[in-house]
């Protein structure tokens, strides 16, 4: 079995490519209401990403569920587990909710939880998961029918908030998941899936949280923002995530469409390769920071969707720093002086951006023009995911427009994977050449480790804020904006709220009027 | 080198003289489609030559305060999502887009003609081998092979040009070979051979001029095909990198604004359409003069 | 005839061999070590040397390239094109699953092309040299001169958003096929219009048309019943040969209209560096092309032994 967990999807960098669709049907008002929803990723995964769920995305569809959920302020919330306690530094005991029924009618017990973690998650998906969850095979044991013990490989206070993730779901051993037989505990059951086009779910009457309102939901594939917007405007679908920015003003003018935006757990920034000449020079990196106007970017190409950022972590995350960080405001003269005292002597910097990133082309061109205004030449390369990885893994770039996003309430891994020397981004180059990409090393590593392990929220925050301050002071990134996501829907729809993690939105109470 | 050019030129000139005095020219000019084609091609070529010097703005210069402005006196084709002047970008793009098409076509032509000449002249197993090579190239739908090649090489304008050049030479080879086969047994070629004239010289002096007409027609039609191919590859994500004002890239980047700022996408769209139309009309017109036997050419598709 | 068949078959086999070489060789255009590139993409991180070695052994990359090629070829001859790097699905399965959507699109586009081209071509021929003729020709050429995706988005705007009569995107229903078929069909209509016009002009010169005219039949009947029927024979045959070139346009049209067909599968595979899928589709289209050409040549030869058609398409 090959690993199908994608680091990029987990770290949640921006939306990916792939296409398809099917006509939707929208009834409303009655008991058999049916709605069509278009998320930002192909819900059928076009066959390459969601093998563990027979091709169905575990996000948005609400067929499968994890033990823990996330609240509106990014805290872990009891879900299939009702409570959890740390019995020592590395051990957790989770109490399971009683009376939870799988779609096959069986009750969920500790055996199902142990099976899901040991077989589906730890064994099948391989060692990447160990580092993410800090669990290894054999570390999940049943205490009784409604209690399970987890043994972390090291102290990990963020564990409950980390497993509050759609991909850490519970399924019974009987389910043949690879073949598309998905037996979850969620409010909807998977009924039908057409690869690359759509999938249909139906109401699960025995849902532990009460019978859901909608009788049926269809999730359609349209990873292109303009196509999503067209589908909503033509009335073929009821709800779309992230309509095209260029269409927002005309959508706002329509009475029959409601728009709502919410700050997400994502943040967009330029990450700088601090181990390659000439961006190894902090003066040059600070100059780049002083060349950019974040409010200008938000107000123009983003059409106001997003918050100008000072740091690399979205401020919905409780230990994110913003006010505490030094602000580099645009000052072209100061920036030119910094360039002059840096080692930069006119060479062209390479800036990568993924071709699927919404607004990526526009944002990168604004940056290119801003940098040119302070005398720094930038060569933009818009590349597909595979090529970007190829280049970043080898460190062959100076700048990358990207960012971070947490799909679970605990977001510790953003700091770890991006900025710790042993994080995914840096580890290989560090081990091969003693370098890395965005890791300052030394004290910053220690601060990240302390934040990671601390169970005291104050201490955690302090350590992480300190780490972020150093990252910004040393200009390892050019923060751009904290992301917002938008949902555009038929104005007659009610009964759904937008959590900071868009993948945790619920449809249980969705009604037509 | 200069000699071969001279020979080619002489051949073309001879042909030109022979048709200038005939009634064909009058017929061609009496067909308004041919005239339209010639006018369009001349206009686009002029834009490509003088465009950058007459363009009112720099193609990459942004003005975020004036983004998405509709057509006006200051900006005849409006401004794009970054406040750049669409008209100026089109003018700069003319040189680039037309340049790409001409260069790719020229590579196809030289490559294909050489292979066709060698195959037809040498005959035997060389001919057999080269013609199977032609068959192999023709066995792939052009854009699909180009997509794979450009995709594997990585997105850049250079790779797009390589990919499009590699997939389009076979028609020339087949055309030239056919013509060489029919002329090489003729007396004047025989005579030249007997006189000990070297074969490259025979090829250039005697064989090429006979096939110049159809080749020119094919090349003219090809320019349009290549422009469309570049646009298609740009749309797929394999084209020029920003902020290059290449037409296909402008068209595909502007498509998100079709509803709110139609000029951003439709200006390059119309430019591409007119240019391709112009080359198609001109190609059809030239065919009537230079290659009257040839019937509807099937090579025209994106 | 028998000799012709044998020699034609032999040529096709040689060409297919070349097609397979090209298909297989494409992968080696990748800059860098393919094993490492593929693994990096698959694992989404830098692979360890052990993983690279294991992968090389598993995929047979350790063998000399000719041996690898022969292994791949012998599998391919048995209908096994390998499995996708990302899912364990057989490439043959992926191709066969994507094929119907593309065939449906290609067939519908041909219908559109013929429906547009026959009346235009006839109109053009009957009114030769007049404004109607020129307008028809220009109209047909405009279709082929527009980049497909631009036309597609314009059609979506007009028919799905402004008029609201057809769906925006997707596959499965007849309504969802209409706009993609028009987008792809208009491109081909130009070529067919020209064919119809030329063919019609020739037929109208034939003596039997004059005879029909002199018998006093109405011009319209003459034109449509006698001339058109004869004019269409070569047209339809040549249109059949255009099938392959429709695949070119299908790539873009499938992306615009979110139709999961061969084109979309290919684009995804190219971007994901999913080489077995890329090779599989390239080989498949190549084989289909060669087979179609062979079939057409042989049929032509059979129907009219004097004709030796090149079967040239691009």
Automatic annotation (TrEMBL), chain A:
Give the highest taxon in the source lineage.
Archaea
Name a biological process GO annotation: peptide transport
Q: Which Gene3D superfamilies match?
A: Dipeptide-binding Protein, Domain 1, Dipeptide-binding Protein, Domain 3, Periplasmic binding protein-like II
The record ties this protein, via PROSITE patterns, to: PROKAR_LIPOPROTEIN, TAT
Asked whether the UniProt record includes DNA repair among its keywords, one would answer: no
Give the record's keywords alphabetically.
Signal, Transport
Pfam families reported in the protein's UniProt record: SBP_bac_5 (PF00496)
**Stored InterPro entries:** Peptide/Ni-bd (IPR030678), SBP_5 (IPR039424), SBP_5_dom (IPR000914), TAT_signal (IPR006311)
This entry's Gene Ontology molecular function terms read: peptide transmembrane transporter activity
Tell me a GO cellular component.
Answer: ATP-binding cassette (ABC) transporter complex
- Domain Solute-binding protein family, chain residue ranges per copy: 75-423
Hey, which family's this protein in? Belongs to the bacterial solute-binding protein 5 family.
Protein name stated in the entry: ABC transporter substrate-binding protein
The opening ranks of the lineage are: Archaea, Methanobacteriati, Methanobacteriota, Stenosarchaea group, Halobacteria
From TrEMBL, chain B:
Record keywords: Metal-binding included? no
Task: List the keywords (alphabetical).
Answer: Cell membrane, Membrane, Transmembrane, Transmembrane helix, Transport
User: What Gene Ontology terms for biological process does this UniProt record contain?
Assistant: transmembrane transport
According to the entry, every stretch annotated as the ABC transmembrane type-1 domain falls at: 94-283
Segments passing through the bilayer: 24-50, 96-121, 133-153, 215-241, 261-283
Q: Name one GO cellular component term.
A: plasma membrane
**Family the UniProt entry places it in:** Belongs to the binding-protein-dependent transport system permease family. OppBC subfamily.
Q: What is this protein called?
A: Peptide ABC transporter permease
The organism is: Natronococcus pandeyae
UniProtKB/TrEMBL annotation, chain C:
Q: Which CDD domains match?
A: TM_PBP2 (cd06261)
Q: What is its main location?
A: membrane
Q: Name one GO cellular component term.
A: plasma membrane
- Report which superkingdom the organism of origin falls in: Archaea
For this protein, the parts annotated as crossing the membrane are 9-29, 105-126, 138-162, 174-196, 231-257, 277-296
Per the record, membrane topology reads: Multi-pass membrane protein
Keyword Kinase listed? The answer is: no
Q: Which SUPFAM superfamilies match?
A: MetI-like (SSF161098)
According to the UniProt entry, its GO molecular function terms are:
nickel cation transmembrane transporter activity
UniProt entry tagged with the keyword Oxidoreductase: no
- The ABC transmembrane type-1 domain covers 99-300
Compartmental location: Cell membrane
Keywords, sorted A to Z = Cell membrane, Ion transport, Membrane, Nickel, Transmembrane, Transmembrane helix, Transport
Recorded hits in InterPro entries, A to Z, give:
BPD_transp_1_N, MetI-like, MetI-like_sf, Opp2B
Q: Family assignment?
A: Belongs to the binding-protein-dependent transport system permease family. OppBC subfamily.
Family annotation (PANTHER family) = DIPEPTIDE TRANSPORT SYSTEM PERMEASE PROTEIN DPPB-RELATED
Q: Indicate what this protein is called per its UniProt record.
A: Glutathione ABC transporter permease GsiC
């Amino acid at each position: 079995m090959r690993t199908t967990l994608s680091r990029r999807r987990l770290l949640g960098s921006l939306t990916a490519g792939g296409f398809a669709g099917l006509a939707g049907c929208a009834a409303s008002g009655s008991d058999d209401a049916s709605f069509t929803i278009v998320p930002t990723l192909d819900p059928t995964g076009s066959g390459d990403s969601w093998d563990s769920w027979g091709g169905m995305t575990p996000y948005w569809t609400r067929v499968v569920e994890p033990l823990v959920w996330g609240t509106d302020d990014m805290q872990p919330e009891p879900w299939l587990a009702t409570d959890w306690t740390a019995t020592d530094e590395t051990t957790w005991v989770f109490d399971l909710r009683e009376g939870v029924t799988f779609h096959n009618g069986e009750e969920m017990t500790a055996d199902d939880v142990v099976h899901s973690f040991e077989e589906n998650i730890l064994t099948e998906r391989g060692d990447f998961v160990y580092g993410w969850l800090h669990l290894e095979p054999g570390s999940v044991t049943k205490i009784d029918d409604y209690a399970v013990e987890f043994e972390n490989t090291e102290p990990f206070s963020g564990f409950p908030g980390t497993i509050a993730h759609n991909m850490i779901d519970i399924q019974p051993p009987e389910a043949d998941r690879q073949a598309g037989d998905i037996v979850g505990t969620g409010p909807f059951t998977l009924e039908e899936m057409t690869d690359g086009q759509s999938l249909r779910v139906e109401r699960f009457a025995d849902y532990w949280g009460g019978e859901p309102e909608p009788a049926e939901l269809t999730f359609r594939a349209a990873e292109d923002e303009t196509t999503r917007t067209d589908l909503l405007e033509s009335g073929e679908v009821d709800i779309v995530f992230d309509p095209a920015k260029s269409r927002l003003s005309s959508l706002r003018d329509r009475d029959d469409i409601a728009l709502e935006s919410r700050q997400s757990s994502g943040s967009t920034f330029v990450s700088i390769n601090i181990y390659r000449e000439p961006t190894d020079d902090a003066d040059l990196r600070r100059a780049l920071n002083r060349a950019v106007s974040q409010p200008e970017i938000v107000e123009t190409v983003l059409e106001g969707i997003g918050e100008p950022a000072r740091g690399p972590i979205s401020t919905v995350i409780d230990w994110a720093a913003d006010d505490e960080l030094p602000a580099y405001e645009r000052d072209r003269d100061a920036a030119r002086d910094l360039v002059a005292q840096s080692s930069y002597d006119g060479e062209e910097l390479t800036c990568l951006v993924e071709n699927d990133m919404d607004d990526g082309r526009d944002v990168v061109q604004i940056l290119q023009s801003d940098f040119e205004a302070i005398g720094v030449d930038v060569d933009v390369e818009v590349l597909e995911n595979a090529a970007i990885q190829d280049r970043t893994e080898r460190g062959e770039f100076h700048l990358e427009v990207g960012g971070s996003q947490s799909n679970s309430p605990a977001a510790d891994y953003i700091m770890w994977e991006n900025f710790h020397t042993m994080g995914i981004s840096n580890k290989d180059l560090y081990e091969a050449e003693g370098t890395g990409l965005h890791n300052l090393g030394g004290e910053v590593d220690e601060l990240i480790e302390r934040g990671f392990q601390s169970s005291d929220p104050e201490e955690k925050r302090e350590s992480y804020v300190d780490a972020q301050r150093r990252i910004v002071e040393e200009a390892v990134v050019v923060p751009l904006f904290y992301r917002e996501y938008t949902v555009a829907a038929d104005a007659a729809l009610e009964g759904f709220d937008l959590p900071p993690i868009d993948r945790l939105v619920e449809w249980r109470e969705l009604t037509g009027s | 080198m200069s000699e071969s050019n001279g020979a080619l030129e002489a051949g073309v000139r001879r042909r030109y003289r022979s048709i200038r005095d005939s009634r064909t020219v009058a017929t061609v000019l009496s067909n308004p489609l041919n005239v339209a084609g010639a006018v369009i091609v001349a206009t686009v070529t002029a834009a490509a030559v003088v465009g950058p010097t007459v363009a009112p703005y720099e193609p990459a210069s942004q003005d975020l305060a004036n983004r998405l402005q509709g057509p006006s006196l200051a900006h005849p084709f409006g401004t794009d999502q970054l406040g750049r002047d669409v008209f100026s970008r089109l003018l700069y793009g003319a040189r680039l887009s037309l340049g790409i098409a001409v260069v790719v076509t020229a590579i196809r032509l030289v490559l294909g003609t050489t292979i066709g000449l060698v195959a037809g002249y040498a005959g035997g197993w060389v001919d057999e081998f080269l013609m199977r090579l032609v068959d192999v190239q023709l066995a792939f739908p052009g854009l699909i092979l180009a997509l794979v090649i450009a995709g594997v090489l990585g997105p850049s304008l250079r790779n797009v040009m390589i990919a499009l050049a590699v997939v389009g030479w076979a028609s020339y080879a087949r055309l030239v070979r056919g013509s060489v086969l029919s002329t090489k047994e003729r007396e004047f070629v025989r005579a030249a051979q007997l006189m000990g004239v070297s074969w490259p010289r025979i090829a250039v002096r005697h064989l090429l001029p006979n096939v110049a007409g159809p080749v020119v027609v094919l090349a003219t039609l090809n320019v349009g095909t290549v422009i469309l191919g570049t646009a298609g590859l740009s749309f797929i994500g394999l084209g020029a990198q920003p902020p290059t004002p290449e037409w296909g890239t402008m068209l595909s980047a502007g498509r998100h604004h079709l509803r709110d700022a139609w000029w951003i996408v439709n200006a390059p769209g119309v430019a591409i359409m007119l240019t391709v139309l112009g080359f198609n009309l001109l190609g059809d017109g030239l065919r009537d003069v230079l290659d009257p036997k040839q019937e509807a050419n099937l090579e025209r598709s994106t | 005839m028998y000799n012709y068949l044998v020699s034609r078959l032999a040529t096709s086999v040689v060409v297919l061999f070349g097609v397979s070489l090209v298909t297989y060789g494409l992968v080696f255009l990748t800059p860098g070590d393919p094993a490492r590139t593929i693994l990096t993409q698959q694992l989404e991180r830098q692979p360890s040397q052990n993983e690279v070695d294991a992968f090389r052994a598993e995929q047979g990359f350790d063998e000399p390239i000719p041996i690898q090629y022969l292994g791949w070829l012998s599998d391919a001859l048995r209908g096994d094109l390998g499995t996708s790097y990302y899912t364990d699905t057989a490439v043959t399965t992926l191709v066969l699953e994507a094929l119907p959507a593309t065939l449906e699109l290609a067939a519908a586009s041909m219908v559109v092309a013929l429906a547009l081209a026959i009346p235009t071509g006839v109109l053009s021929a009957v009114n030769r040299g007049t404004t109607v003729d020129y307008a028809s020709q220009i109209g047909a050429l405009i279709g082929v001169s527009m980049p497909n995706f631009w036309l597609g988005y314009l059609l979506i705007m007009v028919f799905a958003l402004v008029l609201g009569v057809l769906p925006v995107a997707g596959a499965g229903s007849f309504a969802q096929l209409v706009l993609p078929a028009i987008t792809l069909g208009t491109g081909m209509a130009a070529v067919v219009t020209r064919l119809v016009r030329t063919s019609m002009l020739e037929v109208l010169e034939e003596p039997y048309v004059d005879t029909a005219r002199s018998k006093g039949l109405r011009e319209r009947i003459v034109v449509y019943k006698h001339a058109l029927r004869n004019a269409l024979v070569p047209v339809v045959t040549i249109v059949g040969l255009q099938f392959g070139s429709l695949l070119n346009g299908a790539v873009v049209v499938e992306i615009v209209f979110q139709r999961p067909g061969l084109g979309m599968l290919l684009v995804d595979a190219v971007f994901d560096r999913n080489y077995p899928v890329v090779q599989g589709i390239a080989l498949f289209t190549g084989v289909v092309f060669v087979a179609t050409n062979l079939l057409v040549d042989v049929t032509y030869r059979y129907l009219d032994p004097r004709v030796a058609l090149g079967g040239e398409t691009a």
